[in-house]
Amino acid sequence: MTTSSSTRSWATPGRIAAIIAALLGVVLLVLIFTNVNQTQALFLGLGVGALIAAIALSVTLNYQGSGVVNFAAGAIAMYGGYVYYGLRVNGQLFLPPLPNPLAPIEGIVHLAGNKSFNLPNIPVFITLAHPGAGSSSFGTIIRQPAMPVWLALLISAGVLAILGLLFHLLIFRPLRNAPVLAKVVASVGLFIIMQAIVVLRFTSSAKAVTSILPTSPTHLPRGVTLPSDQLYLVGIVVLVTLGLWALFRYTRFGLATRAAAENEKGAIVLGYSPDFLAGVNWVASTVLAGMFGILAAAINQSLDPITITLLIVPALAASLLGRFNSFIVTMLAGLGIGMLSSWIQYLSGQSWFPKAGGQPIPGLTQALPFVIIIIVLVLRGKSLPTRGSVETVKLPFAPRARGAVPTSLIGGVAVAVILFVTSPDWRLAIVNSLVGVVICLSLVVLTGYVGQISLMQMALAGISGFTLSKIADAHHIPFPFGPILGAVAAVAVGLIAGVPALRVRGVNLAVVTFAAAVTIEQMVFANPAWSGLKGAIVAPPRLFGLKFGPNDSWSKLFGGGEGLLPNPWFGVFCLVVVILLILAVVNIRSSRVGRHMLAVRANERAAAAAGVSVSGTKILAFGVAAFIAGLGGALSGYRFGSVTADYFGAIPSMLFLAFAYLGGISSVSGAVVGGIIVSGGILTTFMSHVLGIPETYTLFLAGLGLITMAIFNPKGVAGALRDSGHAIKGRLGRGTTPKADAEAEAGVHAKVGA
Amino acid sequence: MAILSSSGLTVTFGGKNAVESLDLKVEQGQLVGLIGPNGAGKTTTIDALTGFVPARGVVTFDGKEIESQSSTQRARGGLGRTWQSSELFDDLTILENLQVAAERVTVGGFIRDLFKPRNDDVSELMAILASLDLDHSAHLLPTELSHGQRKLVGVARSLAAKPKVLLMDEPAAGLDTEESQELGTRIRGLVDGGLSVLLIDHDMGLVLTICDYLYVLDFGQLIAEGTPAEIRADEKVIGAYLGQRHAEGENDG
Ligand SMILES: Nc1ncnc2c1ncn2[C@@H]1O[C@H](COP(=O)(O)OP(=O)(O)OP(=O)(O)O)[C@@H](O)[C@H]1O
Ligand SMILES: [Mg+2]
Hints:
heterodimer, A: 754 residues, mainly alpha, ABC transporter involved in vitamin B12 uptake, BtuC, 2 domains, two-stranded antiparallel ribbon, 30 helices, B: 253 residues, alpha/beta, 6-stranded mixed β-sheet, 4-stranded antiparallel β-sheet, 10 helices, 10 strands, 23% strand, globular, binds adenosine-5'-triphosphate, binds magnesium ion
């Protein structure tokens, strides 16, 4: 590993300084040349800037402590806000869904037809205090807070500390020697879980929060007036930053963490176990993010599950600017990004601001961190400093599929028959799963074969869907060419976002693609010029007069007459696309490109020394994955008859990574399993229709499954099935495991040689 | 003219020179040894020649200055290397490991493979494996081999790319004396067949018998160069390296 060379490459502080200077320069220019309103807008960004800075500090702390780029830092801040809210307003501490040993019994009884049968549930809240006046029942609006501020803050801090410790002990310690991929996946799982828990307990609508810090207006020079709580928040974040800086510079603990970040032996020499350091840093970073979440929610006077969570994007930009090791640069960058966002927000309210569909162009504040991330990556041309830990846990094995053609033909015929005989609900579930398989396949190529993580696959699918709707349909481009045009557009957008990250090593692609997904979601999908209230309409597919859209009428094969929608022929169409893509992805694995991809995944240095173009291979994989995702987007456009912002975008992209990883990220059969478990697919339909488990639990279970898979079984469900299949076959004495195969073959060779 | 040469090659890690203005030459068809105690800068030299660490100085390969080329470009140009810790592709079989090095990807070929993957001819690669007694392991995974065998696979993989010059980083580490002598004979055979080799090894017996010419590094500095006979007699080398080795009771020449 070239660890020390890269951590020491403070060789380009000039460039970083230039970016920071540029950020501050813009701030300064605004100050000098503009009116008081603009200056005011700039400073009103200090509050959110402080929160961004705090989340970014938490990310950097985690990276130093345990080498994890924590995508869940924003979600932790949001979660902290809700812990405080629950305590202060209701006097209740909410609990995550815990496994209920009675649930399976209940499920079986429900299955037997008795849906009213109910056993006791595990509590969802622990009540610590009762609201002063009125009813204490959950759901009613209570004016009198149940708990004093200081007590609620104290308990929240304690809860956050315990959470941080649990994250370390249950998730990231088991992953300490795992590849970066597994760590990122686990943090994505954490993101999904924290969000899902809050939605389960508090619904996704915003809550009104009262302020904590004094809000009296403070008058600053140049006629700027700010609520003083914003200034307090900045003061606190500056103090925390200085504290961290001093801690890491002057104490043995900080030195040991820095040493461990470079080489775990270094920490041991200083008398600390890297494990202990990682644990302490997890607790610190969780408390830091969570407490700032509380304070920031109080400043916004509103709390919802998504706003603070997505501040992870600007926070990652700030951490990247600070090279994941400088607290001071990170903090300044966070404040700067917050201020610029607020200024852009102000400008977009002006009459001269460019409009789209009568509204100011949306999403520019989301685009800001994305642009900064891209600039940093292009200028830096070097990766994050990699940590010098030993990766002993490997990525899941990517097997060569055998007998893919007969298997998929037989499977295809079976699914086609089922499409015609099942009820509309199940038909829809199958179609949803088929679309899901396509997206999962795109992740198999990119993440499974090349080890790069994209958190924008659904956004790319959406780009394709929008292209199909807005360009292909509008210009009457006929059926097979419309989706292909869409897929090509997905490739183009994907490459613009991905190439700067793919040129350099590390988890940059995950960071960039997540920022890109958020930007695309806000700028394109939510753009009123492109998507009306119903989203963008997609006309049903037609080929040679054949109508196979989901809402085209069809006659039953046997017995005649009109069948219920959706049209099973649309399912057959999706099935054909899926089978063709499955075979193509299987062929990639067993061809030259596939070998090069796996070589890059296994060892980039050795691949380069073998003459493989590492960045070329990654870019090719990213392009292929974008194309496949684009086809998936076109299918889902046809499926819904429109494309909407909430189906594509950042969070669905994360979820699809979860489904693909759960299914088995490194094999085509894994993609099939992944498709089965997507929301709205076969598994969730089974759970809700047969077991009576509400769909709202899907996200929680997906996140939980993702983390579990990352830790225990990176091969996914498909890998586990394959292993047990081999084991059973082995025991039956017929087929053999691959290893036994190879040994048998070796034996044959040996005999021939003898 | 030498097929591979460096002049003033310098690599700095955190203010310390791991290799300092090294002038080195490998003539066409020559077997050149690079020796020195642990941490002398041997691996770093290979890394610098193949573009894996940033370096200063001039590197000439096959008549061209190659400092500005990436490691992939250098490898494709015929500058091959092996790794001290074998660095195999763990998810690919031994044969597939060799295929990666032997085969190039083109866009056209990729699109054709999407529909029908070619059955690439592997007879040459099997011959390389056979020459290193690895043909029985062709369909095994690297994790199923012993450490010594993995090192040999590393050698086989670098040969699969048909290099003009091969830089080998301790290929014999992990082999027993007999095996490493056998490997030495094979390397000599490759060189007699026209390959040029820069060989790093701690087995002095091996290096001193098979090499045509030797460079000795210590603390990143070149402390001696010459034919095996000259090196054997060199006071500085004995002081810095051979003496220490003798004291440790290792193989000597
Ligand atoms: N990436 C790196 N960053 C910092 N220092 C390094 C790096 N790689 C090597 N070094 C240092 O450079 C010096 C030379 O190391 P090198 O690996 O080239 O030695 P070597 O001669 O190959 O030793 P060995 O016989 O043990 O393989 C050593 O002091 C080593 O610690
Ligand atoms: Mg070495």
